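hey can u check if this looks right to u? its 365 residues, i copy pasted from the old doc so theres a chance i mangled smth
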Amino acid sequence: MKSSRYLRLLGLPLLFGTQRTKQILHVNPTIIPYREEANVVNVMVYDYDGETLNEQKSNEVEECLYFKGSGHISWINIDGLRKSDVEKVCNHYGVHPLLVEDILSINQRPKMDEVEGVLFCLLNMLYYNTNSNTVETEQISIVLGKDFVISFQEDARRDVFDPVRTKIKLAKSQLRQRSADYLLYTLLDMIVDNYFVVMEKLSEQIELIEEEVIRRSNTRTLARINQQRKELIILKRNIAPVRDLVNAVIRSESDLLEDKTTKYFKDVYDHIVQAYDLSENYRDIMMSMQDLYINNVNLKMNEVMKVMAIVTCVLAPATVIGGIFGMNFDVIPYAHHKWGFYFAVGSMLFFPLWMLWIFKKRGWF
C-alpha cells in the first residue's frame, strides 16, 4: 500500500488540508475548461419602470427574449448555465461571442470589458461554509446593455441579491426610478457587501485560533493556522481584482453609464478597497500567529531542556561520589569507616540541595 493511502486511512489529509491546497492551486487558464451542464435552469425577469413592475419566473430561457426593447428596464437573472441557453440569450441581446466564452468559463479572474456597446463584468460571489469552515466561490457574469441587465449565475440555490429583489418591488425605491446602470451598481454593491459578511466569519475563526495558540499549541493548531491561511488566499484572490474592475467601471466613458451614477460606483470602490485592506490585515495576523506558534513550541522545548539540565546537574554529585566509593582500590578514605556509608549518602544529599539553592538564588528556575 502506498504511503498516501496510509495517510488517508489516518485522516491526515483532512487534518492538514492537502486536498484544499490542490483546489486552490489547480488553476490553468490555458486549458479549455469543462463545465457541467446545469440540470435545472431558473430564469427570473423583472421588467420595470417607475410606475409598473412585471415579474416573471420560468425554467425556459425563451421566456426572457420578449423583453428586449420593451421600453422598460429589464433585469434577467439566469441561475444555472447551459451552453445552448447562454448562446441563445446572448445572441438575442447582442452580446459578443468572446463574452459568451467568458460566461461559460471557470476559474476566471474578475474583470470588466466593453465590447460592441455592451459592458461586461465577471467576478465571484463569496460564501462561508460553516460546516467545513471554508470560503466558497460562485462565478457571476453581469451584462449591461441599453435598458437591460443580464446576470448569469452558476448555482440556482443561493445568491446575495434578495435585498435587490426587495427594493425592486418597492415603487418608490430609487432603484425603480433610475436607469439600468444603477441596477448594475446595486448588484455589484450587494456582492461587495457580502464580502464583509464572509470576512466577519473568518475573523471569528482567527480569534478562536489565536486563543488556541496562546492556551494550548499543538500540531492540530498548526493545521488550523495553515487551513486559515489558505482561505485567506482565496479571499484575497477574489477581492483584489474586483478593485480594478470597479475602478475600470468608474473610468469608463461608455454611453451606458450616466455621470450621476459615477459617485455610487465610487462608493463601491471605497468598500472594496477597505475589504482588500482587511484581507491584508488578516494575512499579517495569520503570519504573526504562525510565528507565535513557533515561539511557543520553542519556549516549551527550552523549558523541557532546562528541567533536564537541572536534573542532570543535581544528579552529577551523587554520580561522582558513588563512582569514587565504588572503585576497586584497597585504600579509599572512609571506605571501611563505620560512618563512611552515612558520610557518602549525606554528601549525595547535601551537594544537590546546595546546587538547587544556588540555581534558585540566581533565578535559573
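Residues 262-325 form the longest helix (64 residues).
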